[in-house]
Amino acid sequence: MGIPTEGGKIQIHSYKHDGHIHRIWEETTVLKGTQNLLIAANDRTMVTESDGRTWITREPAICYFHSKYWFNVIGMLREDGVYYYCNISSPFIYDKDALKYIDYDLDVKVFPDMTFNLLDEDEYERHRKEMNYPEIIDKILKANLETLIFWIRQRKGPFSAEFIDSWYERYLTYRR
């Protein structure tokens, strides 16, 4: 697994447990890349869904991926504050100019006041049965969901007050 170059552009590939592609973000700027951590940003980037439909993101987003945690965090900068979309997922790998991970359906949406909603529990249960998620994966995902919720409540990592602002400032230096 290589390390992406800071300031370089990568794609983000989301897969499902059965190996099928779920979603591709065409262009994301790497802000920090190590073996364990990738922080990146995009704005108005094209996203391609598994069925071929495409759409463009509406606002700047700071993306947080870690090789040890089974979740990733997207902080979206909107006029009324930062909204977070958190995917319960496999840890990332970086391979041939693309960051890759498995999306495990469960999501957490966090609002600017740091209240949050757990989403897609029904989709998770359906896919868990259809794709035969091993019991150990189910346990890992649920434990990491608890860690994620702890981080949100403690405003830790990507949820800290200065995280999104400081990385967004860095992103703007690459856009100039």
Automatic annotation (TrEMBL):
Role description: Has nucleoside phosphatase activity towards nucleoside triphosphates and nucleoside diphosphates.
Source species: Peribacillus saganii
InterPro entries from the UniProt entry: DUF402, FomD-like_sf, Ntdp-like, SA1684
Domain of life: Bacteria
Pfam family, one: DUF402
Cofactor: Mg(2+)
Domain DUF402 as annotated: residue spans: 18-156
Catalytic activity from the UniProt record: a ribonucleoside 5'-diphosphate + H2O = a ribonucleoside 5'-phosphate + phosphate + H(+); a ribonucleoside 5'-triphosphate + H2O = a ribonucleoside 5'-diphosphate + phosphate + H(+)
Family (UniProt): Belongs to the Ntdp family.
Entry protein name: Nucleoside triphosphate/diphosphate phosphatase
Keywords: Hydrolase, Magnesium, Metal-binding
Enzyme Commission number(s): 3.6.1.15, 3.6.1.6
Residue positions binding Mg(2+) 1: N87, D103, D107
Active site residues per record: R23 (proton donor)
GO molecular-function terms, A-Z: magnesium ion binding; nucleoside diphosphate phosphatase activity; ribonucleoside triphosphate phosphatase activity
NCBIfam families registered for this protein in UniProt: PRK13662.1
Binding site for Mg(2+) 2: D105, D107, D120, E123
Entries under SUPFAM superfamilies matching the protein: FomD-like
